[in-house]
Design goal:
alpha+beta, 4-stranded antiparallel sheet, single chain
Length: 145
């Protein structure tokens, strides 16, 4: 399985979004992924969207639905944990506020915008090709890319 994530840094439209914004703001995150299936060469496009009420701050997917069975020498997929969420230690403030707080605490130390042991969505970026786009739409009609 492919795990896509979006690095939330100064260039991200999510840089100043906080847990409070998920309750008070009206926006929609639209994810479009385009690619080619290697077996057939056919183009594929997948689109999905997320509303603030569908985003769980401080949680991540368990990512344990695929495992290697040594007895039979094959990978097995179980759907039992497909949507399992586990709590992580993502700070309860926007990445921008987190960065500013860290600068105040240690002004001469280089700062990573990634909290230790935080969600992989903050730690890693896997955007495999230019066809992958993440768009944040603020209602009524403001588009940020």
């Amino acid at each position: 399985p492919i795990v896509l994530s979006h690095r939330i840094d100064e260039a991200s439209p999510l840089w100043s979004v906080s847990p409070t914004d998920l309750i008070t703001e009206k926006f929609e995150i639209i994810l479009t992924m385009e690619g080619t299936t290697p077996e057939t060469g056919n183009n594929i496009q997948v689109r999905t969207s997320y509303l603030p009420s569908e985003i769980l701050w401080g949680y991540k997917f368990e990512h344990s639905c695929v495992r290697f069975n040594r007895e039979i020498g094959k990978y097995e997929v179980t759907f039992d944990t497909l949507n399992t969420m586990v709590k992580d230690n993502t700070p309860c403030l926007s990445p921008k506020s987190y960065e500013e707080q860290k600068k105040k605490e240690a002004p001469d130390t280089p700062i990573s915008s990634t909290p230790v042991n935080s969600s992989p969505a903050i730690q890693k970026t896997f955007l495999p090709n230019p066809g992958t786009r993440i768009r944040l739409i603020n209602y009524p009609a403001k588009l940020i890319e």
